Amino acid sequence: MRKENCDLCSTPFGDLLREAERRSGVLVLQGGPGTGKTFFLEETKRRALASGSLCLYATGFREERDIPFSVVEQFLHVPGIPESIRAAVRQLVKGAAPATPTGPASAHLLRDLVSALVAAASNSGILVLVDDAQYTDPASQACLLYLARRAQSRDITFVVAYPHILREGMRAHLEFVGIPGARLIEAAGLREQEVRELLVDGLGAEAAARLAAPVHRISGGNPALATALVRDLLLAGTAIPEASVPVGDAFRTAYLACLVRHPNLAQTVQALAVLGDAATPARVAHLLECTTKETGRHIAELERAGLLGDDGFRHPAVPGAVLGMLDAELPGLHRRAAELLFAQGAPALAVARHLVAADEPPAPSRVRVLRHAAQQLVRAGRPDEALACLRLADRAGLDERERSRITAALVGTLCRVNPLAAEPEVRRLLAAARAGQADCSALRLLVTWFLWFGCHDQAREVMALLVATCEPSHAHDGVQGFHALIGCLWPKLLDDAAVRLYLCTARDVTASVRYGATPMPPFPAAPDDSGGPRRLPTPATCVNGADNDAAERRPAPAVMDAHRFWESDLATVLELMQKGETALAGRFCEEQWHRLTGPELPARQAFQAALRAHIRWSLGDLRTAVACAASALDLLPDHSWGVAVGLPLSVLIAAHTLMGDPGQAARYLERPVPDEMWDSSFGPLYRMARGRHLLETGRPRAALNEFLACPASDEAPQANVLGPLGRRACVAEAYLALGETERARGTAVTELMRAHRPADARGRALLVLAAVDGPERRRHHLEEAERGLRAAGSRLSLSRALAHLSQVDLADGHTRTARARWREALSLATECGAPHLLRHLATPHDEPSPAAEPFLAERGHPAGAGVPPTVTVAVGSLTEAEWRVASLAASGRSNRQIATRLYITVSTVEQHLTRVYRKLCVRRRSDLADLLGLQHQAGEPARCAPLPGRPEHGSTSGVPTAPPGSQPSREDDRRARGARRTRAAHTTASRAGP
């Protein structure tokens, strides 16, 4: 050991060292590996030499046990010994071999050696040290015993070290203990306080107090291991939490060094490491082909030395280090361990682990174990280990049908990780299917894989084999998920009458077997008999259902196995979405999502993340939708998504567009998609998202073409596998943006006349009608839209309806109601992550408005060449309210006239003008008029976009804005006074109550 550890190891041996220095006789030191025996002998030798005493030292080696006098001969190489002793040892070694060391021929040689030692001891004490005395050869053993019996009376001290002198096989060495006056000393481990003292020297008092307990626990008090851990801690630094003490190379090396000179203990540790959690003393003994008693003795010795704890290894890094010592013998140990565990009926996972580690073609009887283990590993989210089991099983000598089952299991496991990686196995499985060697589940798997990547011809071929060879009564529970996946990946396949009949029959058989004669829906429906508008769920309550009345009236869905997503959960989610139960589908999907432990099954988790993103987008939770869709694309590369890449991309495009980031949406539109995607259910979703982006960026004609390219739900029901598209409502909005009001009205009316339409689509159609119909019908349409959207929980569309109703209320003089509705609209839009959607709408006075933006290119009014850039930016920084006040002030109206015009106080007008002057850096109204005149030169004055159907000169608040330079007419003042009286009467009535 190094010098810096002397104080530590001297502490437990301090009394023994002092006793060895001042008395003669025999000391027998025993202790396990690494407990400090060797250090004690080295320290004793150092002190003896420092005091001038003569020291003879030697070490026993297992490889030299059969060489006579191999230990005594080492005395010849000790520097500084008297020549008389050296000559006596040389004569003993040379003259006694091969005779018996205690026979007549060598007795005089032993006496000569004793005489030489006694003569030397008369001048200075003599210390004889023997380490690892258990490996002493018989000749040296006899010689040392002869000397030890005469040591006490001759000022000679003998110290011999053993691992455990009382164990079986050490009978000959017990004679040292039987010598009169001999002492047996146990080398005990370090206490926690002693470990703390060791840590103080290297890490300081604070770190030592914090780390003493974990270091003592990991090292077991073994001095060698504790010292090695200190070196690892010094390399790691002092900022180490108590729960994560680093175990580095120093600790691993020290642990292995403790076992080098103890082969029996090393074999026991290796067997424990190989068996792992399945290790018991009986199994270790069976693996090592020894007795259980002997194994128990070895384990007890290892525990005393601190190399093992009560529950096995003290740190998970130790077994790996131990197994690293094994080379060629390791596969054999694993093979024997697998046979042992298989014979004893151990779990499949325990047996399979050793079969894989042995890396030998398994017997056919072990293939079933490997298959069962692979299934459990997939469910546990450990696909790499499952693939290792299946690939090993594939090397066994199997018939073609059994091999096709293994191949199908390989394909299924790879598809959960990366579907494209399964292509070689898919080719093998397709050949087996054509040869009639694939079962029904393998055929379903093939159909799904081919549809995932748009290989329609192969999918149709395998589907025909499935229909022809598999009876519907043989279908298992996965037929529901299979049907749902076909509807998502290639709905056209369901147009085949034979395929449709097969799937329907299989579903009916499965349902009747599970539930009885009558198939049952996954969730019982409950009518909404509340009779009034429901509270609107927030993003959080859409997850837990606390505020969702529909979910409160339905029993919460029983969460199925988290790894049966493809078999049944997907069908359940899609069925709920097709029924318009998006919130309930969201709850079910959220519960499944939170049961996932990690990204060990990337493909499955990616698709579920994309589906979750689609649901969150449908519920108006745009931020969560973007996060889920982006994580889905991160989990799986685009080329592995196949046709399903349209699902996350459509969410990202639509959500970023609605969140006011069309640039990011355009970047997602640039990502390539396969041509086969347009034939899947993800194609219409992608077209709708692209159409919304085109509509938002000022290209309504192109958006209309995208919307019209999507099939209507009544013409192609399979287009709505992932929920209603709301196609007609989008078409009506596109017509409205094109100014084709009659077509917009006709499309919206058609949507409203359809039965069983989603509330969101109906609400958006009513918003279109409110825009194209006259003022007398506008409020009716908007209030009907509000009721439907609120009941359905469509928060984003509801925010728009409330904002438009706020405008109508403001125009009618109902300022208080307008403010309340505006606040709710802005709150909902903010929760959804799209407050900018209200930027074109008027803000009720003294209410917060969405973030301001320049009234220039985004509104279709590009800045003119003659406008200074600073002026453009400054004018664009005005809010809607500030712009209205500034425009009226620039036109020559007084503050009181502006207040009368806008139904606000004079003080509010002054506050707005103060902010306008500060933003535009002007001092007088004439400067303001000149500045806004420059804006007129750039284009038409920007203003809030009115609802279609309003007079062109009207503002969105319902208050007409006079052209710049005009004077207010008496008719304007008369209307303003009438509006104030109406508002006052309405306020008085509302306060009085019924």
General description of the model:
The chain contains 47 helices and 5 strands. Strand 3 (126-131), helix 5 (138-149) and strand 4 form a beta-alpha-beta unit. It comes from Streptomyces argyrophylli.
What's the short version?
The chain contains 47 helices and five strands. It has 994 residues and is mainly α.
Could you list the spans in which at least 5 consecutive residues all have pLDDT below 50? Answer: 1-12, 511-563, 851-873, 933-994
Assembly state of the chains shown: single chain
Shape: elongated
Q: Structural class, please?
A: mainly alpha
Gyration radius over CA: 44 Å
Q: So how many helices?
A: 47
Strand-residue fraction? under 5%
What is the terminal-to-terminal distance? Answer: 96 Å
Number of strands: 5
Helix content: 55-70%
Topology:
Layout: H1 6-22, E1 25-30, H2 37-50, E2 54-59, H3 83-96, H4 104-123, E3 126-131, H5 138-149, E4 156-162, H6 174-178, E5 183-186, H7 192-203, H8 205-219, H9 223-236, H10 249-260, H11 263-275, H12 281-288, H13 292-304, H14 317-324, H15 329-343, H16 348-358, H17 364-379, H18 383-393, H19 400-417, H20 423-434, H21 440-452, H22 456-469, H23 479-489, H24 497-515, H25 539-544, H26 549-553, H27 565-578, H28 582-594, H29 602-618, H30 622-635, H31 638-641, H32 646-658, H33 662-669, H34 682-696, H35 700-709, H36 727-738, H37 741-753, H38 759-772, H39 775-792, H40 795-811, H41 815-832, H42 869-876, H43 880-890, H44 895-902, H45 906-920, H46 925-938, H47 970-992
Parallel strand pairs: 1-4, 1-5, 2-3, 3-4
